[in-house]
Prior knowledge:
binds zinc ion
Amino acid sequence: MIYPIGTSGSRVILTPPVLDHLAQHRQRRFWQAEAGGQLFARLDDGDIVVTEATGPRPADRRGRTYYHPEKSAEQLEIDTRHPQGLHFVGDWHTHPQAYPDPSASDLASIADAVRRSRHDLNGFVLLVVGTLDPPDGLHVSVHDGKVGYRLSPAPATRVELCPTPGKLAPRIRFI
Ligand SMILES: [Zn+2]
């Protein structure tokens, strides 16, 4: 899924493995605890291509309405991925809401993370995963340390060749 960042020409791109990982941790049952982790991306000509979502980890503290990651595990993830060209670009966590919105403390903590980081990005990505399928059940925003900007997915613009009718014909059923 592709989320343009305003008119900057930059985009946040969520790859299929990331979307799958988030979908696995949705809080669809009342007993399920919040989950979360970090987002790692390749920086590709202005695009933030998110290729991995980590967590939750065994040492994280988790409840139905809170998620506190274990800080040393987070740092270890950053240190091991950086040599592979994967940059820490933000965080994700779940909410037991259909249409998720970040809480005041979510916004405060991402703003704090941006201010404390030494980073080539001028902002961080925040994903909040609700119970509905994306895009409705996925909050995507970028934060510059003062303000957050909520992003909307771009309509599909990819052009692909249609399959050759001859090859598909035996499978088509008209009803
Ligand atoms: Zn939250």
